[in-house]
## 1
Amino acid sequence: MRTSHRLDSIPMSGIRKMFDLARPDSINLGLGEPDIEPPAAAVEGMNEAALAGLNRYGPTAGIPALRESVAKRFSGFGDLTAGNVMITPSGSSALLEVAMSFLDPGDEVLIPSPGFVIYGPHAVLAGGKGVEYRLTEGDFQPDIEDIEAKITPRTKMLMVNNPSNPTGGVLEEEPYKALLDLADDRDLMIVADEVYNEFVYEGVHRSFIPRLDRAVVINGFSKTMAVTGWRMGIAIANEDAMEDLVKMQYHLCASPAMPSQYGILKAMPGLDGYLANARTVFKRRRDLISDRINEIPGMCITPPKGAFYAFPSFDCDISSADLAMMLVREGLICTPGSAFGKYGEGHLRFSYAADESKIEAGMDILAATVKKIRR
């Protein structure tokens, strides 16, 4: 059976590729999956909903009570109503829905590099083209001059990920304003992936919610509540864009899962306390992995300010793909920087969503492997 040219033209995720190659006893610092338990209220709410028979189709945009709760939670960033919110079957599907709703064949999308692996393929699946723009080394801020140089008459969309996967970078005020100025001047649509907004350890989160005239904001519950298997996301947009997104979502899935929505809804009132504990856990792990990496000759990292990824550079004479493969053979799963775009080469991504014992053991393997290479 012959696959479509669209699907043939995009690669398999480098994150999944490394996971599939690993042996069963490997230390997994590859997947961004929190190992902490979800809020108890979320599990209770989902079970209660299922037992009460709420297992059928629901509203395409999500149940009204959850949309209202989300609007209230994010209203600190700007004026929102339930009409600005759509519940989606994952943040990833929300991003694909945006691409399918607003891109025409031949349109170009500016995507961060290093940047999350699905942005470019989503542009291609929608008939467009991804164009990588550079993030600055060290603090991983958008290189505004590089973005300006890559804008063409076909450029329609600008992807921003804040905080960033894979780098852990948190968008600072100057580039935040510069991105909005560019979007206004060149009539660009900003798609802001903000799924890690609750995991900022230094600085503040600058959301694009205040500019829904120019931006669509994507968020989700998978990371926030450690329910990656529930596949629950959020799209936030102005009412005109929302009408289009709801139409696209109907044709994609009809409606998001009902019991999961009720579980999320029940956990929303106690979310701040849950997240305060989660941030304490992840910050401690961030400090641990950053210290261990910087003790290894030939490797360097500035502690990331957000998310739960470390993206160190290395100066060994080897590609990131080959180094990651060596580490897999030694029992450590990570992701090569090249999986995140051409500007990711010379780096590795480690997730510190795993516990301290796994981080310690993984860094022992990293240190021993790099030492062999540098001999």
## 2
Amino acid sequence: MSAAGVQRVLLKPEPSTWHALAAQAWAAKSADATAFRTQLGLPTDRPIIMTGHQPGFFHPGILAKYIAAHELAKRIQGCAAAVVVDHDAEGATTIETPSRDANGTLSTVTLDCTAAPDHSSDPLPIVAEAVHAARQYFSQASGTPAERAESANASLLSPWFTAQSFNAGEILQTDLGTSLINRMAADPLAVAHAYNDALREHPGTGIRPLRINERNPEQTELPLWWISSTGTRQPVDAHEIATPPCEACLAPRALLLTAILRLAGCELFIHGTGGGVYDRASASWFHSWLGRELAPMVVASADVTLPIEAPGANLEEIASAAWTAHRAKHDPAQLRDISSATAKRALAQEIARSTDKESRLQKYTQMHALLAQYRLDHTEELTDLEEKAVHLRGQVRRARIAGRRDWPAVLHGHAALDALAGEIAHRLARAPVPADVSCE
């Protein structure tokens, strides 16, 4: 039986410091903040704790960010806000769910809310009701498929968080977004060099540097995407700003997206583990390029598993069984066939001592003929060993499916998500709220 429920909650740095981080940022919020937040429909009279993700049915590790934003905002009388990365909506309408194949073996199936249910691969009974609810909420929502998935996910998870959402596509349409685009277009080398320097300063982000053309700066790449009407994206060169491709719109890349939001949109940005790595470069980039400081960022994540029964084998058992099955095909001693083992060893020694090519080839052929006969004589035993290795490998695959931490959060029961929210709230509650953290 796979261990189920909350396995781990990650909050970095120590969550008792988050209140003070937000208070300091609120006291030092930038001059751009009021206009920027107003244009995005965000409040201007209280601190904002922000997070975000692509639209769709995200897993509990992502949910942990939203719960943390909700709980911290509630404690400091602030507002929890969430950016929907609407230009990255691939797979938004799909739900990965555990199932069993025609043989009854635990497997994974991907369901699409835009398609009719396919009962040839039904989800496991423990998540069937949740999948049905997700489909219902999706069918009742309005907007594009991605917007409907986002709405369904937020509705199903509303017992654990509320956040004021806005689309990433709106950010570049603000006065601040427009001014930054104009500055990039006016001096593409400055922004690109600062961007690449920040990536070198913070290795391991997984983000590639911008392409720089010193001889023709207009052909220098900017930290933006062109998003086509079909959702495909392509890099943006400086000279293209004035003449965009047909029916394409601009969207910020990851570093620019969170850098703008940390510059003027929030007092604290809560990342997952991935964002907590790549966004280290944002502060260095904006400090070098613009001489501006960003609001702090923190990390929240969690491992939560479903109560799926799956007998598992450990990696040592797998390695041992695989080695034994392989070795037994080539070493008769593994099956205690002493006669064949002795004969093979003698032939191997003769091959090693021989200096005559023809003689070595003859002995080599004799040895393989001996092994072929040995395998024929022990077919049943060798088959049993191979089947055992295959069975154990299958157990590991099934155990990995059962122990996955990235099943959609909407598939988890209320008890597990209550426990997740309770743990995050408890750890945030350890710190006193600074007196100057809110406007009240």
## 3
Amino acid sequence: MKTISGTTEKGQGARGKGQEISHKGQGSRVNVCTFLAAIVIACSLQLAPCPSASAERIKDIASFEGVRTNQLIGYGLVAGLNGSGDKGLATMQTIANMLQRMGVTVAPKDIGAKNSAAVMVTATLPPFPKPGMRIDALVSTIGDAKDLVGGTLLLSPLKGPDGTVYALAQGPVSIGGFIGGGGGATTQKNHLTAGKVPEGVTIERDLPFTLGSNGEIKLFLHRPDFATASSVVVKINETLKSTYATTIDSSAIRLRIPSEYREKIVDLITLLDAVEVAVDIAAKVVVNERTGTIVIGERVRIAPVAISHGNLTIEIKTDYKVSQPPPFAPEKAETVVVPQKDVKVKEEKASLIEVSGVTLGEIVKGLNALGVTPRDLISILQALKAAGALRAELEII
């Protein structure tokens, strides 16, 4: 590096003497070439194409056959409320049945408890559940209970769609909110008639299942797409170095289990889960009219189009004035209220603005140039779709 620096300084000082510079530079020609080669290699590494931004692991975009969750549901009773429970017949009958199992006989009509509430208990079984595992439960009131603050869920069996009891739920209910005040002035945080029982469900029965059958296993994409399915098949075959995977349709892939993995299915799934695949994303615009939320996908395109959007505001104001009769008026004269209405119409001026874009940044810049609110932008997107200028699927939720 010192030789290169010295040669450069001499070259700058005697710019007109090219022969002298060439002669003195021969002694450091090897160093200069090495230095330039290093620069070329560094630039080539920086300019080398990076992995696609849309590349995802197989475990994030698909799941193997049988690796799924299952839903459980049950009926339960939450006790220990501070007078905020319900008085429904179902709740009173539940209390009577529970007391009868404990040797106490009482008629439902004689129970006037306000500290309990009938609830529905739901839970989600993870894939391959084992007896003794603990999961969370969700409880929701089905009566007119005001809240579940401070309540405890009593032992409740949870059943699957086949009517079999797979788990038992019990424990304190966590609301994550509060209610306070009185006399017409109250304050409340969060939703108080539904809560969670953290790790309150104990699994009592597992679901028998064997990974793979007849020497093959299937893979299901979370979002069906033919291009993505083909990419997954190519990557799996490259990883296993043979043609083991084939596509069934846009959402399913059939995988023949290699002979060396017949007794090691978990190892095969672990290997394939880490494989990265380029995911093809459809051009879509999602609009939520209730909240005014707009999400524009990366592949959305807008053909050149001119947009003019103006706001129309109509203001109607009613002012009530009292008209009283003058002194010494006839007895039939009455005091009346005379409404006076003032109607104003205001329409903002709008000009045509050209909007187009082949990248997400251009689309955002063009739509922002309109200077409209999100709800106005929803109307504009719908009009663009109707005009055929929006090259994407418009989904309204």
